[in-house]
Design brief:
Pfam families: Transp_cyt_pur. It is a multi-pass membrane protein. Keywords: Membrane, Transmembrane, Transmembrane helix, Transport. By secondary structure, the protein is mainly alpha-helical. The chain contains 20 helices and no strands. It is globular.
């Protein structure tokens, strides 16, 4: 059967967490570049990138270097997850059952769902502030609701519409941010633009970590947006289009935030600094960012809903929900986030960043296990039917080797952590730099590979996986 083109695919997505059969595959691999480039030109990465000079007191040069290093390193992991999508044809979180077992994967799925909801709530707050900045008569709470509804509509329509909007957004936002850079550099309002801040190792490492963790935060759902591509798409093509789109788009947004803050007086809110630094084109920039945050936030809603469906389906294993079920759950999540965001404190974004740093401590070992299992152990060959069985099929309810490596991967990060809940002794010794994610990756990856290869049931799973890979 011929693979349908994107134009012949239904606009409203009918699949949720189920396997996408060959006849429903569509799209081009280049769509991944526009999705991740356009999706990262948004207020939240701009606000996050500004922290390198605001919070960690780097100057412009070292701030840019740290941002680039972090995104280029973290983007490798994110893109390796993306390359799994065409081969598997299922969302990333439900695929984790093949590594952790049907019940063993629940913790990671829950954590990912909470993170998506946090991203969604934070972005609608930024949407509300952006709309209020464009039209003063629109209160921030009203802007929050408008932003949430816009993202909700896009998320409910689903996969194809998300890709279409980001193809458009790549050109519009790409041109917009280049124009914005040009205006700022020709209208600098401070005398210390190049000299404010300085190099400090702890601040540089912290900024690198923040950029790398930004990329790793996409890992639990990046392959959700490549799973409709034809199965014969080259792994290298999927990797590079995702990597270049995400690393370039997010780096530009991070650097834009740092530049805007340095070009304006000390102490300004980042988005206020963007408005002031871009002068006469400021309102236009805010409109573009508003549209961007609404479009990009649909990904967070989409990921949150797929995670919730995966949690429920673990126990109601015969249920593979339809588009209608996805829409209902999307509306419930949207309403809950609106209620939380409208009543949130002024420092909501700061609290959110703190939350993400805590959650990523437990997501980093998952990333290591998933990638080692996919590329080094099973080599992309899995039994899809077993993944949807209540007992985990050939993967079981629990995989002790994965859970042990996961627990150790979390434990070894503790001395290197720097979160609002806890600062480890090593982090304190290096002036607060958080290197926990790097330690977690370096320990968990070889440990899981060694444990999996010592597992006597490993070879049985391998044999089962080689007979599968599709339904």
């Amino acid at each position: 059967m011929a693979t349908p083109t994107a134009s012949s695919a239904p606009l409203i997505e009918k699949h949720t967490i189920g396997y996408v059969p060959p006849e429903d595959r569509h799209g081009k691999v280049r769509d991944l570049f526009t999705l991740w480039f356009g999706g990262n030109i948004a207020p939240l990465p701009i606000v996050t990138g500004a922290l390198g000079v605001q919070l960690f007191h780097l100057n412009l040069l070292w701030g840019i270097v740290a941002i680039l290093v972090g995104h280029l390193v973290g983007g490798v992991l994110m893109a390796l997850h993306s390359a799994q999508g065409p081969q598997m044809g299922i969302p990333q979180m439900i695929q984790s059952r093949a590594q952790f077992g049907s019940l063993g994967a629940l913790l990671v799925v829950l954590i990912a769902g909470v993170m998506y909801i946090g991203f969604f709530a934070s972005n609608i707050v930024l949407a509300g502030k952006s709309l209020h900045g464009v039209v003063d008569s629109v209160p921030v709470p009203v802007g929050i609701v408008i932003g949430a509804v816009g993202s909700g509509i896009i998320g409910i329509i689903g996969y194809r519409f998300i890709h279409v909007l980001n193809r458009i957004g790549t050109w519009v936002l790409g041109i917009g941010i280049v124009v914005g850079f040009g205006y700022i550099f020709t209208h600098i309002q401070t005398d210390d633009f190049l000299t404010r801040g300085s190099f400090n190792l702890s601040g540089w490492l912290a900024t690198v970590s923040l950029a790398a963790l930004w990329q790793i935060a996409f890992a639990p759902y990046v392959s959700d947006y490549s799973r409709y591509l034809p199965a014969d798409v080259k792994v290298s093509s999927t990797f590079w289009t995702t990597y270049l789109g995400s690393a370039l788009g997010s780096s530009l947004a991070f650097i834009f935030g740092a530049v805007a803050v340095l070009a304006t007086p000390v102490g300004m809110d980042t988005m206020d600094a963007v408005k002031l630094a871009t002068g006469s084109i400021g309102p236009l920039m805010l409109v573009l960012f508003l549209l961007s945050v609404i479009s990009h936030n649909a990904l967070n809603l989409y990921g949150a809903v797929l995670s919730l469906i995966t949690l429920v389906q673990t126990f109601a294993y015969r249920w593979i929900p339809t588009a209608k079920s996805r829409a209902v759950i999307s509306i419930i999540v949207l309403l809950a986030c609106c209620f939380a965001a409208v009543g949130a404190s002024k420092d909501f974004i700061g609290h959110f960043v703190d939350m993400v740093l805590v959650l990523l401590v437990v997501l980093v070992p998952w990333t290591a296990i998933n990638l080692i299992d996919f590329y080094a152990i099973h080599k992309g060959q899995y039994d899809i039917q077993s993944i949807f069985q209540v007992d985990g099929g050939i993967y079981g309810r629990y995989n002790p080797q994965a859970l042990l490596a996961y627990a150790i991967g979390i434990a070894v990060q503790i001395p290197f952590m720097n979160t609002p809940l806890y600062v480890g002794p090593v982090s304190a010794h290096i002036n607060g730099a958080d290197l926990s994610w790097l330690v977690g990756l370096l320990v968990t990856s070889p440990l899981y590979f060694w444990l999996a290869n010592r597992d006597t049931s490993y070879r049985r799973r391998m044999m089962g996986g080689k007979l599968a890979g599709s339904l």
